[in-house]
Each structure stands twice: as C-alpha cells, then as structure tokens.
Amino acid sequence: MILNIHIQTHAAVTVFPFYLFKNGLSSLIDGAWGGSLLMSRRHRWKLDGTEAARSVTVNDGCLFPLQGQLRHGLMQNCNQMHACYLFQQDKHYDLSYDTGDKALECGRHVDIFKLWLMWRAKGTIGFEAQIDKCLELSEYLYNKIKDREGYEMVFDGKVCSRLQNIESEKLILVAPVIKARMMEYGTTMVSYQPQGDKVNFFRMVISNPAATFEDIDFLIEEIERLGQDL
C-alpha cells in the first residue's frame, strides 16, 4: 500500500515516513512550498525524515520561484479541488478570474527546461541563498508583529496574523476588505484564509528574491493604514 501525504509540520515529517516504512507501507510526500528547504543547508533539518519516503515532490514555482505556464479548460471538472484557502468565495472581484482552480496542479505546469536554465544561472548556492533570505524575512516579519500592538498571531510560530480589537462577528470581513483595498491602491497583496474555527486571517508567504526588510516594514504599516477605520 502507498499513502500520499501532504505534510505541514516538522514533527509529522520526522515521524510518519519512518512509521509507515516500519509497518511495510510506502509514503509519497508532497513537499509543496516547504520542500524547497532541501536546497538549504541551514534549514533542511526541518525536513528530516523525508529520506524514509518513497518519493518527495517539490513545488519549484513557490519558493524558488520558477515561473510556470498556465493551463486551463481541459478536464476542468476533474481537476478542480475547490481549495478554500486559495480560492475564497468572498473576494471583491469576478471569481471567474481565479483560473488556477481550472487546471491540474493549480494551474502551474512544471517546465523542466526553465528549471534547468534557472539552475544554470543561479547555481545550487544561489538557490540556497535565495531560500535562506526568504526564511530570514519571514522570521523578521514574525518577530515584528508577534508583540506589536494591534496585531494578533493566529498560530504560534507561523506568519499568520490579523488585527486586534475588532468585534468577533465583524472579524471575518476584515481581511477581505483590507485585501480589496490593497489591490485598489496597487501597493501590495497578501493572501488570507479561514482555518477550522479561526475566521479569516492574513497568511503571508514570502518568495520574491528582491524583497527587503524595508518592504516588510511597509507591509505592516500598510495593513494598519488600510484597516484603521474598521
């Protein structure tokens, strides 16, 4: 028997593959965004345990980032997963523009030639430096807002946050409104999503190699500016 596992925590990566292997089962790990950490000597320990899996996939369109090709329309009903954390139904624009849910792999088609060219241009050390920088910026953002007045960390250790001091029944509307204003002003854009009993919160993913600490500071202040009247 083979199990396909989408792993989101370090504890799960460490335990599950070895447990399955010990019991005669094979695991296929979907590394998704975090799988790229295998390229970093500083951070690859977070994926300890993956060596017991039969295979590990990495989404090179996220953290590298490799620009993929968009395919949509073919076998649309079969490919749609309706991932609520990606394709929210409460956006302020026409949802038909969310073409990612109309194609296999969320619209990102792996182009191995592009990956080869990027690898040739940057080298393994270049990829590693880029990944380390993104993680450094994420840690900087987390440390800036975890004790900042007006912000609330939704999950400890992850860059998921929302504004404080807002009535609970209105909290679900705050992130969509702020994101709509971000797009209207054209200053920045951050994903939001609900999770279980947690209503909409911002879920920050950093993958732009040109991002700076000043950009992170601007992002924090921009969220506050756009949400000050809510």
From TrEMBL:
- Keyword annotations: Cell membrane, Cell projection, Cytoplasmic vesicle, Decarboxylase, Golgi apparatus, Lipoprotein, Lyase, Membrane, Palmitate, Pyridoxal phosphate, Synapse
User: Where is this chain primarily localised?
Assistant: cytoplasm
Q: How does it sit in the membrane?
A: Peripheral membrane protein; Lipid-anchor
Gene3D superfamilies associated with the record: 3.90.1150.170, Type I PLP-dependent aspartate aminotransferase-like (Major domain)
Question: Which principal EC class is assigned to this enzyme?
Answer: lyase
Output one GO MF annotation: pyridoxal phosphate binding
Query: A Pfam family matched by this chain, by name?
Result: Pyridoxal_deC
Q: Where in the cell is it found?
A: Cytoplasm, Cytosol; Cytoplasmic vesicle; Golgi apparatus membrane; Presynaptic cell membrane
Per the record, its GO cellular-component terms are: cytoplasmic vesicle; cytosol; Golgi membrane; presynaptic membrane
E.C. number(s) listed in UniProt: 4.1.1.15
Indicate the family of this protein. Answer: Belongs to the group II decarboxylase family.
Assembly and binders: Homodimer.
Q: What is this protein called?
A: Glutamate decarboxylase 2
Organism classification: Eukaryota, Metazoa, Chordata, Craniata, Vertebrata
